[in-house]
TrEMBL record:
The protein's name: ABC transporter ATP-binding protein
Database matches in SUPFAM superfamilies: P-loop containing nucleoside triphosphate hydrolases (SSF52540)
Pfam families: ABC_tran
Organism: Piscinibacter terrae
Domain ABC transporter, chain residue ranges per copy: 9-240
């Protein structure tokens, strides 16, 4: 079991710019956030606000232009086995069975065949995948492939799990089941999770805390604690607290999405919108 005192992620005053002189894009500006050991924290915000950029910095795939990301007080300077990463697209090896996919990282760590097999089977069991251990990825549904992806990321016992829209490609039914499976695994393994999503309900259902980002350049607009009890159940999604949180987050995101779209459309584009739907239509939208 993961040591509960480990797995603290800190992003300290991080700014990121892309491109050279003349074509410089500031993606992220002065972002600070924290995931305490064993916490589940989501980041939500309009498209292009820098969510994936932040996750890539914590994963060690990218270096910030300013500021720093730390894991348990140590500056992150590259990828490491202490951080498991799951992306939206499934990244399984198609020529390996489910179990061999899960065992891969353990083999790289030099674990013997029996220990690898036993660990892989335990985790596959937690995710309900043991009956499919000898299947190949193309014999699995999207939800099952993503469950294997999560189990594979967890196999090397990382202290933190970094997830970038992991359920974005799944239908809503499968997505709901995956959210429940993930909360169960998170509770049993006591990991810290940094979770990127566009989906407000998903962020609330899964998290202890949700950070809302502004339109680009991404800053932290709000930090919303989620006071729902654990374990979370789908019935909680109909509770007044849940609905109030959805309303609050929708309001915050809407402001930023309009700002982001305004930037893309420009004044002329927005005038075109105005001409199309008229002032009354615009009032109805606000
Ligand atoms: N390698 C890069 N070179 C230039 N610009 C980049 C690069 N990577 C990201 N960007 C820009 O930085 C901004 C933030 O990108 P990022 O992918 O982090 O946003 P995001 O919030 O994850 O977006 P989405 O929700 O659409 O996935 C975007 O405007 C993007 O176009």
């Amino acid at each position: 079991m993961t040591d509960l005192r480990k797995g603290r992620i800190e992003i300290r005053d991080v700014s990121v710019s892309f491109g050279g002189k003349g074509q410089r894009t500031q993606a992220v500006s002065g972002v600070s956030l924290e995931v305490k050991p064993g916490d589940f924290v989501s980041v939500i915000g309009p498209s292009g606000c820098g969510k994936s950029t932040l996750l890539n910095i914590v994963a060690g795939f990218m270096v910030p232009t300013q500021g720093a990301a730390l894991l348990d007080g140590q500056a992150i300077d590259g990828p490491g086995a202490d951080r498991g990463v799951v992306f939206q697209q499934y990244s399984l090896f198609p020529w390996m069975t489910v179990r061999k996919n899960v065992e891969f990282g353990l083999k790289m760590q030099g674990l013997g065949i029996n220990a690898r097999e036993s660990k892989a089977r335990t985790l596959l069991g937690l995710a309900g995948l043991l009956p499919f251990e000898n299947h190949y990825p193309d014999q699995l549904s999207g939800g099952m492939k993503q469950r294997v992806g999560i189990v594979r990321a967890l196999a090397t016992s990382p202290q933190v799990l970094l997830m970038d829209e992991p359920f974005g490609a799944l239908d809503s039914q499968t997505r709901t089941v995956m959210q429940e499976i993930l909360t169960n695994m998170w509770q049993q393994l006591q990991l810290s999770v940094l979770f990127i999503t566009h989906d407000i309900e998903e962020a609330i259902f899964l998290s202890e805390k949700v950070y809302v980002m502004t339109a680009r350049p991404g800053r932290i607009k709000a930090e919303i604690p989620i006071p729902l009890p654990r374990p979370r159940t789908p019935e909680m999604m109909s509770s007044p607290t849940f609905h109030a949180l959805v309303r609050q987050l929708k309001g915050l995101i809407r402001e930023e999405s309009l700002a982001a779209m305004g930037g893309e459309l420009g004044a002329a584009g927005l005038q075109g919108l105005d001409a199309h739907i008229g002032q009354d239509g615009l009032k109805a939208l606000s």
